[in-house]
Amino acid sequence: MHAQGNNGPPQGVIRVRNARQHNLQGLNLDIPLEQITVVTGLSGAGKSSLVFDTIYAEGQRRYVETFSSYARQFLDRMDKPLVDAVEGIPPAIAIEQRNSVRTSRSTVGTMTEIADFMKLYMPHVARLFCDGCGREVRHDTPSSVWAELRSSCTEGEPLLVSFEIPRPPTMSWEELAQGLIQQGFLRVWSAGAVLRLDDLASWPKASKSKITKADTVEVIQDRLSVETAAQERFVEAAEAAFRLGHGVLTLRFPNRGPKAKPRRFSTDWACADCARTFMQPSQGLFSFNNPLGACPVCKGFGRTVEIDPDLVVPDPRLSLKQGAIRPWQSGISHECQLDLLAHCKAHAIPVDRPFNQLSEAHRREVMEGGRGFYGVTGFFDYLQSKAYKLHVRVALSRYRSYRECTACGGSRLRPEASLFRLGDKTLPEIFRLPVRHSLEFMEAQAGLALDDASVLLHREIVRRLRYLVDVGLGYLTLDRTSRTLSGGELQRVNLTSCLGTSLVNTLFVLDEPSIGMHPADLHRVDRVMRKLRDQGNTLLLVEHDESIIRGADHVIDLGPGRGITGGKAVFQGTPKALEQDRDSLTGAFLRGERKIPVPSRRRLSKGLGLRVLGARGNNLQGVDITFPKGTLSCLTGVSGSGKSTLLEATIWRGLQRLQGEMVESPAACDAIEGWEQFDAIELVDQSPIVRTPRSNPAIFLGIYDSIRTLFAATDAAQSRGLTGAAFSFNSGTGRCDRCRGAGFEKVDMQFLSDVFVTCPECEGRRFKQEVLQVRWRDKSIDEVLQCTVTEAIQHFKGERSVTNHLRMLEEVGLGYLPIGQPLNTLSGGEAQRLKLLGQLKRLNSGRSRSSLILLDEPTTGLHLEDVRLLLLLLHRLVDAGNTLIVVEHHLDVLANADFIIDLGPGAGDQGGRIVTRGTPEEVAAAPLSITGRYLAEHLAARDRMPGSATAPAVCLAESTASAVYNTAEPAASKPPHIRILGAREHNLKNLNVDIPRDAFVVVTGVSGSGKSTLAFDVLFAEGQRRFLDSMSAYVRQYVQQMTRADVDLVEGIPPTVAIEQRVTRGGRKSTVGTVSEILHYFRLMYARIGLQHCPDCMIPVASITQGELAARLRQDCAKGPVELLAPLVRGRKGIYKDLAEWAHKKGFQELRVDGKRCPTKPFPKLDRYRTHSLDLVLGHIRAPMGPAEEAIVEQALDFGQGTVITVSARGEERIHNLSRSCPGCGRAFEEPDPLQFSFNSPRGWCPDCRGYGVLFPALLEKDDLEDVHLDRTPDPDKETVCTTCGGARLKPESRSCHIDGLSIVDLSATPLHRLPELLASIQKGWDSRTRQIAEPLIQAVTERMAFLEEVGLSYLTLDRSADTLSGGEGQRIRLAAQLGSNLQGVLYVLDEPTIGLHPHDNERLLDILRKLQSRGNSLLVVEHDEDTMRQADTILDLGPFAGEHGGTIVAQGNAEQLTATPASITGRHLLHPMRHPLRGRRRGLQGGAVLQIRGACLHNLKDLDCDFPIGRLSAVTGVSGSGKSTLIRGVLKEQLKRLAAGLDPDPELCASMEGWEEIDAVYEVDQTPVGKTPRSTPATYVKAWDGIRSLFAQTTTARVRGYDASRFSFNNASGQCPECKGQGILKIEMNFLPDMHVHCEACKGRRFTDETQEVLLRGKSISDCLEMTISEAEEFFRFHPKIHRSLKYLEETGLGYLRLGQPTPTLSGGEAQRLKLVKELARSSQDRKLFLLEEPSIGLHMEDIQKLIEVLHQLVDRGHTVVIIEHNMDLVAEADYVLDIGPGGGTNGGRIMTRGTPEQVARRKRSVTAPFLKKTLDRS
To answer: N or C: where does the chain have the smaller number of CB atoms within 10 Å of the terminal CB?
Structure first.
């Protein structure tokens, strides 16, 4: 073994240490990053265990750990591998060969994102054509119309510009004419002539008659000539005509004669000639996954479910009398057969003639009905009417299949989308082209790109199409559904998708990418893998193909044997070194030292064989072919040539249909002949033999019965009365009762991988002790099952019924398998060989003489040595009389064939023909065969001597194999940046930017400039979306998905992790334990290993016998009959429709769902996202209990897994449990569940306080237990600690569950720094089972606690309420929860991590972030903090201003470079910081009134005494956790509320408070949202909207129509749009996709009805006002003082960029806080208020802080008192009075360090704040 090992930190490698997963034997490996590494070795050597179960599992697990625990429980939970360490690993994506795609919404186009780019591209360049007249439809303007006229008309040609208006039905023609004249129109067009309105008498009679009867009138706007000088006049006339003609303009040409056709133009997407309106081109219109674009009939699936005639008449060779109509041949439906025969007799329809020979009319009459007969259609229509019955639905499903949607023709898009063309093709036509033709077509459209965005999109589409062609998939179509792809095709599509996404720093794990590839195509995959590597990714391949191994950068060869003899690294190094290694079996094959032999002669056909005529499915072109009988025939050809279509879709499914099986329709062919001569027809693939661990090789081969018989015949067995059945672990009396013969117990770990623990009763040996004591030849039945095949042959020597079959296993290389190994753990290759041995066994037993065996790529996953063994088995099968047809590319298999059929010559439409056929030698000599060329080289290479100059190798290019690899192109350096092109999300202005990777980058700018949009909505959304796309659709529906950003291109982006700033405080139910997720792990631990105690007796529960339980039930029955229920589901999400159907089948009529009775049929629809509890209602039992009652009890115990529930007639409910009953009082308990320990769930919370730990009136008024989620206590003065739980929040049963005497309440109350010691002590007494279950939980908790300690929060307890945390504490907890995953190579996107942090703590945070970066990660931080910016490698400054005036990069560089950029506001502040005080002086502190607090003692406050000057701006500062929020929010605010309410001071808050009489009201201005629905807007919140509505109600139009102010409210039904109810948008739920929010089509997103919008105020409608920014509105309403006042304040506080109608839930915390301040500023009240603000600087740029300071000063100037909790030194330096609390956090805080003016505080040496404040003041 050649490997290097050292103990230093990994440098450029993934370091694996002591890997022991499955058969791995303590592997130590260093796998180089950013290289291609191949892992090879024999089947069973441990390749998948290393690559997938260890490395990939760890890489993905660590990334998934950054998701919420809720999301993680739905993700593919991979076991934490048995390995000591895996270091330096990036996030991992697996590209496997198995196709697990099930949804029809996924296509080649969507997987590669080509469909996404096309939907963006089409609106830019596609042209719309009217389906009525064929004319191109455009969005016309006066200028575009003029340009067209100039190109099509002669100079000076006369022209009439006109428009049509409808004629009002109540107006006479004379009145209409007079009205037009009054408006200045004198001419109209009618009957081919111009008529004057002021001269009606001269009109021809015919013209007058025609125009007076017409519904419309064509009014002439102007007459002019088409000449350059007339352009301005024409544009003016056209604008008027468009406006008056409702968007339609007509041009007439008088010189062309009266019959000349006019030309019409439209400003809308409408055909002016046909008067048809079309949908405007948009992204949604060209996506079948969007409700706008999806076909309304098939919903975007392209297919509908219908009755399939081929399933109704599976064998058309049968006559009607013989039963051609399958569904009418049995059961009640047989009456229909009799009706059919009677009808046929009456109407002379032949019943003895084959169905396919009946006339078309007769077949149609039978199928569709006629002449009084209902036909097959009528029969199924009747069944459909009864589809509410389960058995009817089952019957219908047998005859249904998917048929192409007739509405969209299978295109999936709505018909309107197909009216748009790119060049001469529609989008569906492009998607139906083979990819290589799509590439040619798109390359030819390059000239259509008119702007930068379309150029970028076109380039990306072409690039991805070329990738597909490069990997040999040019024959696929973009509309091909993903689930129909082969494993190899899917893997290559995924490979190109990964290349297209431009992900970097990612570990791609591939499972045999050469699968399904012809040798001629292998170089294509190699090229793509190298591109992926050169982008900066690491590729780890499981591979056996010789050419791929030779082309790798690094090779790991596992072995030396299989199973327990493998699991070691035989070799690690370069391919060239592998070839020379003498210990490696792989190296021996590479050297040519070891070869696969070729038969000396070829077999000849033993009969007519199997004949296929006219095969034309998919790309097959009428193929006629005969497979000789009794031979090994190989079907080969380039990838996509039609092999699988011929073998599986045509032959296999066709033969299944011919044998009467109901399968999917086979591919079309004329006939399949000769199949009747075979006894059996089998398709042998590599799918698992079974899905459960209950079967093993011994059972599969039928030798386990013989083994059991041998054991039963022993004296020991007979003396105990044990028969053969006792030695079965699947049934009988001998298996272990506890584990039911499994040997293990499964422990559900929810958001962690399930744990399988050894059964404690049988110790994993499956059987009862008396069975294990029986020994045969000194081995028990368990020991025999653990023997390998080779060992078992020796053990059963002489027992031929056993050894004969075992020798077969050994001969095919499976001697290493234990005979008791579960079959579901076998590899694909192992399973396939076992299936083939099953065929051979049937032959040997005489049950089959000649079978037809079909195999598709049997060498998948096989090493060359395994291929040799497989070929021995295949030859053995053929020699036994079977016929084998094998689809294969492997040249060794082809060389061993008797007969080869080579399909081609190319792929897709260029394939599907027979290129050549014959023996391998004949094919090798065929000049046109690509396969022959490679086969000839392979056969010639076999004759060369080992060690010769040219080693045997498979070609990768058209010439030789070595040419590709020996002259490998140098690796391109990975791009050093993340590139964003054309970002237009929200207010971004088509942004193009390169962001350095592996760097610390800060994004800054004024509030609203687009920082979060760039960081989160573009970068984070794209990075995580691309990673999540590698997961299943099922998983993605539970992970909060972000919609695709409006951006042209993002490349070079690694997987992303977001750490967002959630500025809203946690609700009363949120604690340190829930935020850090530590409590989730403790809940799971107590549910799985906790010991339940009776809360009444406080003694542990114990098991009881079934007899004791029956006695307790009799006691219940003595008082009257009781109802018996069995618990089935507890606190799980789902719809449980299948469970209800199961109960109905069992004869049960009711289920109790969440406490309410529901019928099992029809079963109500449950909310899949809410937790449910379901109980099965079994019936009543009465005393005395007889056999019937005892049977019900036994059934209930079985269904409830040992638990039953009784309900008396009075509704009293009792639980009875076999294993959890109190020995003292007999009370029983259900099995613990994690929700039982959650105070957020009714299953766990205290029934009195419902999980809050306190009681208050608002809580007691609530009836809905599921709906109590109060963020704040509305009546703090009436709040009392819950006496039931003592503030512990949990119900008594939950508090009484202990681990080593400690409850979960005890752990939650322990400070974090003491928890590790406590956890270590309770583990000392654990047994192995308990340790196995709890270890992953303890490890996860320990990791999170370590990081909390690292960020300085070890003084907290888990039960600390989140709303009592300081902002800094909350921020660091969130950081700890997210950053503990120890990932490498990811992009961390952080949202203002310094929020809530004292400058002293900020230094510690910056150290942590730098440490995170040093692991090889990129940091993108949205931040305004000056120190953070100065430490950043790069700063992106967005602006220059906010809203629509922002969204551009003003400056990019380090802090020094920003200061040199004049346009950068950030640079200006960095260069010229604020000078304090801004007003030049401070307010005095002497002689004024003060608010005194004495003896403040809440939480960590140490009898604190402090004063706050009235009418001043005070700042409270100090390190995070020092007690600032406790003092201001917990003491000052709450005590003032009590005193204002006339209550006595609460001594638990402080001893006394004086001077409070100077305060009239307390107002806390926090950052919680100001509204929870889109109906709340800035205009409504500050009451400006009321005044605006009143202005509109006063307009003339409104008064005439009778509209009052309510008409102009989008919350009032009279004026709001009835479709969207005034919201402007509609939400559409999309399965497996993010929910879509689309503009309401009725109101175009403008919220109001058309009639309401017709009322104008100074030219603006009410909808226009909603769209105004505050700056625009402030100018528009400047002459309306009441409205203008609040808008002016909003503008002055820096919120001018917000729109009046912007939903307030979309505002940031800082924006919400300033909105609240403005609301107070706008009031005219004379009350003296105390304003409390916590961290008002959150989210504010330095420019905005300056504006905020002015607002705070204005409040003080009005006589109010303002107290802020703040760490921003600019705000602290502006205060009149500063109070500094410290010195540390938690128990180390709570003391006043200093107080006074900022200057006084800055001079105090013992203050941690002082040096930072001094630095700020010194700038002045």
So the answer is: C
Q: From CA 1815, how far away is CA 1820, in angstroms rounded? A: 9
Residues paired with 1438 in a beta bridge: 1005, 1449
The Cα 124–Cα 139 span in angstroms is 13
- Measured distance CA(1293)–CA(1237) in Å, rounded: 9
Our CA dihedral for 1041, 1045, 1050, 1052, rounded to 10 degrees, sits at -20
- Name 1557's Cβ contacts closer than 8 Å, sequence gap at least 6: none
SS3 1039: coil
The SS3 call for residue 441 is helix
How many residues would you count in the chain? 1820
406 contact partners, CB below 8 Å, separation of at least 6? 297, 304
Q: What element of type H or E holds 1370?
A: helix 1367-1379
pLDDT at 1037 over 60: no
Kindly tell me if the per-residue pLDDT of 1801 is higher than 80: yes
At residue 951, the pLDDT reads 37
DSSP summary character for residue 646: I
- 1284 to 310, 430, 1232, 1251, 1499: CA distances (angstroms): 69, 69, 21, 11, 23
Q: Which one-letter amino acid corresponds to residue 1006?
A: V
Helix (H) or strand (E) holding 1590: helix 1584-1593
What average pLDDT does this structure show over 1058-1084? Answer: 74
Q: In sequence order, which residues have a C-beta less than 8 Å from that of residue 1325 and are 6 or more positions away?
A: 1300
What value does the mean pLDDT take over residues 584-605? 90
Which structure tokens are listed for 833? 């060989």
Are 53 and 81 in contact by the 8 Å Cβ rule? The answer is yes
Q: Residue 1096 gets which letter from DSSP?
A: T
d(CA 639, CA 471): 10
SS3 annotation, 519-551: HHHHHHHHHHHHHHHHCCCEEEEECCCHHHHHH
Gap between the Cα atoms of 1005 and 2, Å rounded: 55
Provide the CA 112 distance to its chain's centre, in angstroms. 16
Whole-angstrom CA distances from 472 to 97, 433, 936 are: 16, 15, 22
Identify whether the C-beta of residue 120 lies closer than 8 Å to the C-beta of residue 1057.
no
Q: Which tokens hold the place of 1814?
A: 């001094």
Q: Sheet containing 623-627: which strands, arranged edge to edge?
A: 623-627, 610-615, 671-673
Neighbours of 717 (CB within 10 A): 25
* pLDDT, tens digit (0-9, with 9 covering 90-100), for 1454-1471: 999 999 999 999 999 999
CA dihedral 921, 923, 926, 929 (to 10 degrees): -140
> Tens of pLDDT along 630-666?
999 999 998 788 888 899 889 998 998 888 776 777 8
User: Would the pLDDT of 1260 be above 70?
Assistant: no
* pLDDT (0 to 100) of residue 567: 92
Nearest Cα to Cα of residue 934 among 961, 913, 969, 966: 961
pLDDT at residue 1422, as a whole number:
92
Cβ neighbours, 10 Å, residue 301? 20
* The pLDDT value given to residue 72: 57
Q: Is the separation of the CB atoms in 1780 and 1809 below 8 Å?
A: yes
Distance CA 513, CA 517 (A): 8
β strands within 1687-1790, DSSP E? 1729-1734, 1761-1765, 1777-1782
**Which of the four pLDDT bands, split at 50, 70 and 90, describes residue 124?**
confident
pLDDT of 892 over the 60 cut: yes
- Specify the higher pLDDT residue, 1365 or 776: 776
Burial class of 361 by CB neighbour count within 10 A (0 to 12, 13 to 18, 19+): exposed
Q: How far apart are CA 775 and CA 781, in angstroms?
A: 7
pLDDT > 70 fraction of the chain, expressed in percent and rounded: 90
CA angle 1054, 1057, 1059 (to 5 degrees): 145
CB-based contact 1772:1814 (threshold 8 Å)? no
β-sheet bridge partners, residue 1390: 1059, 1421
> Which ranges of 214-264 would DSSP assign to H, the alpha helix?
231-244
